[in-house]
């Protein structure tokens, strides 16, 4: 052996000293009754993915664990005051502490070394990409707060062999966000810890340390891209009620809004999280908004059908006149509009205006030219018959016009009533959801 090669090889001598006769397959205690206490610690570095459909959380954590190996002890004075040394992980005993919620092997870097102090304290620090099962509740989306657990325990050794404790106090662990990447969709609120001893068969007892990672979604993106467009469309639907009820433009306007909202739902359907056990409240909100648009369109169609003037339209029933035209305007402070008597409401009004004068003249003529039918020339008799027919026609048209004006007034009052009911429903629905989402956001 070349003596110059290891002339100052203190670490080589120390490694040879520690590995001499070392059995890495045996728990490193001199008294087998002594339990190996493993101190663990967890720091969340990043939230990589939250899969609501498969109920899987992917995080990147910094995991630390330390324990005392009674066989890895030396006197620093014998080894040039070396107080700690790094050794290959494969050459020392390592506790079999795993995460119960593991569902997939993450892409974690391999850290092949551990630190060992002269007192036998072994420090095993490593980053881990953790893919774990988590019960995700998406009802409050996008204002949801998720709580996922990471349970560390020895898979085989009982508490008599391996016990688990925290490396830091629970208070420091709870509020530690020093390494968290705080620029993603999710915000880390805190990390809670809970120690428990459990037994499967009431014979062997195991120690476990459970970390509760509490995260909250940042809702700004979803508010701007999901909620605001829906609110704008609902506001436009309310504005559409100010169009005249007897015009067909209101129906076209509301049909356009309904089609636009349908396209909007198709676009945002991929953005909403989906699970087999529940639907987010925002999905219910979109469905209710669609239902409100359909109800608004139905109300508009009924009102337009009601105020549309027809020649064979029956008179307004007396009970409808009493309830709608007399009681409702007083109870709900609805002002009657006299503009419905304008002749522009029907295409025959101009004919009625042109013939009204002839009607009056025909009536006078009929009164003057009816002394006796025997002496009336045939031509004058035909004229009298024509004038009488015109007068009867105009009287019938006047009655139809009066009936149509009454129906138009009924339609106007019902339109105002239904609009107010619709507006109250929309406002109450919006306030309820806004209050819920505000409470969830603050909480």
UniProtKB/TrEMBL annotation:
Q: Where is the Neurotransmitter-gated ion-channel transmembrane domain?
A: 226-432
Catalyses:
Ca(2+)(in) = Ca(2+)(out); Na(+)(in) = Na(+)(out); K(+)(in) = K(+)(out); Mg(2+)(in) = Mg(2+)(out)
Q: Which Pfam families match?
A: Neur_chan_LBD, Neur_chan_memb
**Entry's transmembrane regions:** 220-243, 255-276, 282-304, 417-440
Query: Gene Ontology terms, cellular component aspect?
Result: postsynaptic membrane
Per UniProt, subcellular location reads as: Postsynaptic cell membrane
Q: Does the keyword Zinc-finger apply?
A: no
Mind listing the UniProt keywords for this protein, alphabetically?
Answer: Cell membrane, Disulfide bond, Glycoprotein, Ion channel, Ion transport, Ligand-gated ion channel, Membrane, Postsynaptic cell membrane, Receptor, Signal, Synapse, Transmembrane, Transmembrane helix, Transport
What are the residue boundaries of the Neurotransmitter-gated ion-channel ligand-binding domain, all occurrences included?
Answer: 13-219
Please indicate which superkingdom the organism of origin belongs to. Answer: Eukaryota
Q: Is-annotated flag, keyword Cell membrane?
A: yes
Q: Family, per the entry? A: Belongs to the ligand-gated ion channel (TC 1.A.9) family. 5-hydroxytryptamine receptor (TC 1.A.9.2) subfamily. HTR3A sub-subfamily.
Quote the NCBIfam families the UniProt record gives.
Answer: LIC (TIGR00860)
Subunit relationships: Forms homopentameric as well as heteropentameric serotonin-activated cation-selective channel complexes with HTR3B or HTR3C or HTR3D or HTR3E. The homomeric complex is functional but exhibits low conductance with modified voltage dependence, and decreased agonist and antagonist affinity. Heteropentameric complexes display properties which resemble that of neuronal serotonin-activated channels in vivo. Interacts with RIC3.
Describe its function: Forms serotonin (5-hydroxytryptamine/5-HT3)-activated cation-selective channel complexes, which when activated cause fast, depolarizing responses in neurons.
Please give the name of this protein: 5-hydroxytryptamine receptor 3A
Q: What is the lineage of its organism?
A: Eukaryota, Metazoa, Chordata, Craniata, Vertebrata
